[in-house]
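OP here, attaching both records as promised.
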Amino acid sequence: MERVRAAVRLLTAFAVVALVAATAPAGPSRAAQVAPSGTSRAQACVSSVGPGIAPPGTVPSGLPGFHASWYGQSGYPTLCPGDKSTAVVAYYNSGTRGWVSGRLGEMAFLGTWTPLPGQDQPSSLGGDGTNGSPATGWPRYNRVAAQPADYVGPNQVSWFQFTIQAPQQPGTYRLYIRPLVEGANWMEDFGVFWQVTVRAVDLTGVLVSPTTALTQAINTTRSYTAQANGITGCLDLAFVDAATYPVDGSFRDAETDASGKVVGDDKADLSTAATFSTVNGVQKGTSYVDCVVIPPSGTIDVTVTSANGNANVRPIFFQDTNNNNALDLNATNFPTETVGVGAPVRFIPPNAASSSYTITVGAVNTDEKYFVDSAGTKTFHYDGNDIYQLGSMNLTLAQFEQLLSTGDGITMTYSADSTGMSSFTITSDVGRAAPTVVGNVDDYDNENVQDDIQLTITEPPTNVDDIVYQVWGTSVTALGPSCETSGGGYAPRGTLQMPRGQDTAKFLDRQISSGFYCYRVGVTNPVTNTTLWAYSNFITVETPPTPVGPNADPRSIDARVTTVAGLANTFDAGDVIKIAFSKDMKLATGARLQGVDADGTFADIVCGTGGNASCALNAATETLAGTPYGPNRVLTITLTANPTTIQPGSTPGLQLPATISEAAGISDLAGNPWDVLASPDGVLGAPD
């Protein structure tokens, strides 16, 4: 059914409307219960935005041609590393010619300007993901924003909006902008800039000693002392995997959705491989300790241990300010709660006795020259006196260490005497196995056509860190059984190094000509120089490439209720909704849409566990109202319970018809969110 919508947007100078979804605990938090009145519990980092800057009293008007005058802007932000902020700047059309969207030589943009980053230069504060700029949704790496209205006439004001992202390094950054009409000329008021202050993540609220890594036997204990400085209340105690905690202060957050895509949950991944034996002398024996009251001295003493022969952990001490038993993170995995991190401790099993063994490797430490079996029962040491082989191929010690990784199969004749000679043969080398490769076509560079190919490369978890994968591509004349058998003439397209602590990364090939394509991704064994290849699916760039709307935002073009299982006029369990989209789509964990009905009821439909609906995209072509839609273009929502009322109206429940007012976690394959308001159809009415 077609949507009938009149959208009127009133932009008042520096009025900020924020929609915030918050969950408040039923009672005061534990920190509030324990802390004396008037004490503060500072977070590790909190972003903020300063006051807006008002427009001038007078501006020029009637200047011949294209001209612009600055007319105010939102405030300068102070951000945590990686956080994003929306900026707004107003320009008054002080010329005699209007600005016309979509027309070269008449459309107004904001461009990057001198001195920072320089005229038409990329900025570290935002961009389109090309030329070293972060991907924050700008039209191009050097075009900060485009005019939002179709037409801005003389003596009218245009409100340009764009997103900036804080770099990881604390400090003060500036972005200078200047308006222009693309294809015509730059306009005035070129001294406008944004100043962005990036805070340092505060890890000094809790200092933990010792600070040096240690390897010790399983079932022994290591002592740590946490010193809370300037904070009161209580601290939660937990562990993180030492191998996935980098030096920059971020944490691992690697939950995946049903498709295997890493989506995270904005909480640090905790480890259960070790336990806290004692806390301030009190026996515990758990891997998570809730709310240890900070004593007047600020000192908390703990001992930690593990019976796990492959445990490599760091203890963390943090203020759980929202009482969710988790260390909360921002979008780039930096903590938003005060936290202290202890030095790594690795627990290893007893040394193996002299004998012959066939094992699977469970953990490796090349610095201390030992590895542990996967059962975590034995530790094997090696040195320059030993003999190494890969199958029947002799290896040097350095080559052996290059190959040695978790999951490898090894047979050995082992000497427990450090002066003796052992022989180690790698029978199964899994550290450089071929990845999986999935290719998609979309508009990843905001050029408004789907002519970019993105490869999602996923390596087995047993692969070693820091592998550099070779990416090769080829065009094919027709779609065959597979890229492995049909593709020929592969040529290098680039390389991709898998980030440490991750198993999935993206490779982007931009602005590809129409046709059929195959890709292969290879990993080379540094000792044997053999390369294992993984092949993509067939990828088609249409002729001509499929056009998409500005910023490639997907839209719903058919929305309908296909089944009513309960009350005829009310959304309830068993009802089925189908929504067809203009592009291939994907769902995030907990995807949500909100509907509003005629009596003013606002209600959420939430997908998945803990929600009120099951949601799935079509795996094969599906026809809706006589129109066929390819895979991943039709979303089927089956209600398992009534929608959750956010704001009640005059009639209980969400009534039919309902208009979709907002959505989250529903995007195209490039990550562009569903543009609900611009969609041709977003009304869920009587069954079709």
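Record two, same layout:
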Amino acid sequence: MLYVMEKRSKLSYLAQYASQIDKFRPETCCILANYYSMKCEHEKAIMYYKRALTLNKNCLSAWTLMGHEFVELKNSHAAIESYRRAVDTNPKDFRAWYGLGQAYEVLDMHLYALYYYQRATNLQPLDKRMWQAIGNCYEKIEQLDEAFKSFSKALSIGKVVHGPSDSNYDVKDSDEAEYTVEPHICYRLAIISEKLGNEKDTYKYMKLCFAQEFEWGVSDETSKARLWLARNALNNWKFEEAYELAKDLNHSNAHDIEEARAIARDARNRMKNQLS
């Protein structure tokens, strides 16, 4: 818990306290491993996880956590071995199945990754990260319909609904309920819709992605969505809308910023021509 909450000072105190009581207990080794992991000293963390397993081979979580450390070191093959030992010992550890998926995805073995992500999702079906991971794999292997379904599932799980005033507002109470979602999910849905030739859904998800800028702040995805919407508005003769969208695009790569400036200039000139 202290590790997840990033309470380094408290974790440091706990590690020191546990070491003074009994430094050869597997629990102490796991605490020390967590401490070194938080300090990004992954080799030391691995050493203590191995020591914990030497002291108690039934210390099940150590295999999974050691796999995470190998992933941080970009040692995918060692990570896979650790995660395999974890699922052999405890087939219900969704973190180990998910870790196997990540390790194989790093190796560009997307069919293997997909299989392991699906195993993780069966154990943790309401975790949007699982559905995003599955969607990424389907997109990589060009199964776009399945990718769209997976990202849609992630979107529905990740929605945070905002009502007019009540914190317990139910989305069913009004057709005008607003919600926030992760921009990345919206953007992937927009890109997949574009690949599928669905213009209506592409516009819908680009607009939804851009709307998240007010909740999540400016990001690469919201900036790309802004540019797409500006381009779309210009092509549909909505010059004022195109200008307003394009003129404020400052967070992106140089190519996108230059394109936005060109759209803003073009839209401004066309508005002047309409007035003259």
